Amino acid sequence: MAADLPIELPGMPADATHPDFRIFYDYWRACAPAGLLPGRQHIDPVIDIPSLVPRLALYDVVDTPEGLRFRVRVAGEVLIEVMGLAPAGHFVDDFIVPERRATVNGAFRQVARERTAHYWEKQMWTAGRQYVRMQRMALPLARDGRTVDMIFACHIRVPGDATFAQESDAPAP
């Protein structure tokens, strides 16, 4: 039966080269029970990787009539600072321009449905409506070891030029 087969953990995305992504990924992988995905009950980043806590976020996977949506459960200081508000309790797509919602939700849906790791680098808006480069790696969490019910993510603000060629997901100022 497929439900009894071991889960193969996804590899680390090749583009996720920041050293903190390696720490984040290795921690997540080490928390996984043999043959299963780790769940929220297996991680304690405040104790285990406190230096990364400001960069971390947890997203609930919520099945709605419109399909899967992703609600911010916990957001670290990096996201709060960039967004200028505490997004906990809100859906990710509430902060995205309508024409980009499908793309953003699609990335998280891939993590949830395919149990894969996802990496992106995009520009995000700050509270002052300045754009900054951000990198994010998202990893699946599953309370039962198989069905993804949360996404564990690490966000890194890239220092340097705020002008970045990729499309932004943020609403226009």
Helical run tally:
4
Q: SSE order in H/E notation?
A: HHEEHHEEE
Name of the level-1 CATH class: Alpha Beta
What class would the helix/strand composition place it in?
alpha+beta
Strand percentage lies at 25-35%
| Large-scale geometry | globular
Biggest sheet strand order reads: 2-1-5-4-3
Count the beta strands: 5
Instruction: Tell me which CATH architecture applies here.
Output: 2-Layer Sandwich
Mean pLDDT: 88
Low-confidence stretches: 162-173
Major sheet summary line: 5 strands, antiparallel
CATH level 3 topology:
Beta-Lactamase
Total of domains: 1
Helix content: 10-25%
CATH superfamily: PAS domain
From the alpha-carbon coordinates, what is the Rg to the nearest angstrom?
Answer: 16 Å
Give the termini separation.
52 Å
What topology does this entry show?
Blueprint (H helix, E strand, L loop, with lengths): L18 H13 L13 H4 L7 E9 L2 E9 L1 H7 L17 H14 L3 E8 L5 E11 L8 E9 L15
Antiparallel strand pairs: 1-2, 1-5, 3-4, 4-5
